[in-house]
Amino acid sequence: MKSWSTASHLLVIMLIAVIGATQESTSHSPTQQTARTRVVLLGTGTPVPDPDRSGPATAIVVDDSAYVVDFGPGIVRRAESAALNRKIPAVEPGNLKVAFVTHLHSDHTAGYSDLILSGWTSGRRVPLEVYGPSGLQSMTERILQAYRVDIETRTNPDGPMRDAGRFPDGWKVNAHEIKSGVIYKDEKVMVTAFATKHAMESYGYRFDTPDRRIVISGDTNPVEETITACNGCDVLIHEAQPLELLAKMPQSIQSFVAKYHTTTEQLAELANKAKPKLLVIYHTISFPPGIAPSRLLPPKAGADALYASPEMLQKEIESRYSGKFAIGKDLDVY
């Protein structure tokens, strides 16, 4: 009798534990369901060939869909790394089907052919949909023409993609030249373009998803449109150039930055008005030791004279901005 009572007692305890675990799982499910949108930095660099920073590229991932902004050099390799090391299969190169470009400078577009062709050879079965400023269609047509022999030899009867007849459109691209306003919408995201101020036609983008609002600036001088687009957004991804470093640069670069980029001081002022929940800083001029072009180095300067350390950026931003911010690195996820 005592044995039966003990067994019954243990059974009751086990049932309570199971019920409790079920309730705990249920109570956590809303949190899990709301974390649908992530920002993945695939590249945070500049035209400087820094081996630790690929060219500008950002993925907005909603559930199992990825939307890419900019395709700087290295985008496909970084995307594969994010899929493997960050466990985000949505950014597998074959899964990248929709992309946006802020402007057509080479550091933002040098990975375009890789995105088109490596995405196709990695399994993309539909045309790549790409949105951006005037000139995008011409750039796209010329890239495809430049790789005509590649495409033909991969799809001919002896080619490695000869079975692509089951999805013959994987190498194709639909290029859409845009203006400000809503430019893309599906069941997971609405994308709004807004004009920015750079050396050529340029746009920033706001992504409205089921659970987050994300704004990315591209290259730009501070503009009111960015503040309006964010207006308390969840994440603002914005370029910033450090004042301490700029003071050491040639006057020609200082003048260019003054017209077409944003300093840390200006970004702090902008963020104080835009009030993002998280500010992510990327695309910062910096020359790690050994990679600065000699023409830019001050006389008798050391190899690290033009290196913008994270500590430099941290100091310049936090002294002017009290909100939450992060200095972005390749493969960071927010």
Q: Could you please describe the fold and organization of this structure?
A:
The chain is of the alpha/beta class. The protein has a single domain, classed as Metallo-beta-lactamase, Chain A, CATH 3.60.15.10. Helices cover 35% and strands 19% of the residues. Strands 7-8-9-10-11-12-13 form a seven-stranded mixed sheet, covered by helices on one side. Strands 1-2-3-4-5-6 form a six-stranded mixed sheet. Strand 7 (181-185) and strand 8 form a beta hairpin. Helix 7 packs across helix 10 and helix 10 packs across helix 11. The longest helix has 33 residues, at 2-34. It starts with a helix and ends in a 7-residue tail after the last strand.
User: Per the principal axes of the C-alpha atoms, what is the gross shape?
Assistant: globular
At the fold tier of CATH, the topology name is Metallo-beta-lactamase, Chain A
Helix content: 25-40%
Supply the CATH superfamily name.
Answer: Ribonuclease Z/Hydroxyacylglutathione hydrolase-like
Query: What is the CATH class designation?
Result: Alpha Beta
Trace the largest sheet across and list its strands. Answer: 7-8-9-10-11-12-13
Supply the CATH architecture. Answer: 4-Layer Sandwich
- The number of domains: 1
Q: Biggest sheet, in brief?
A: 7 strands, mixed
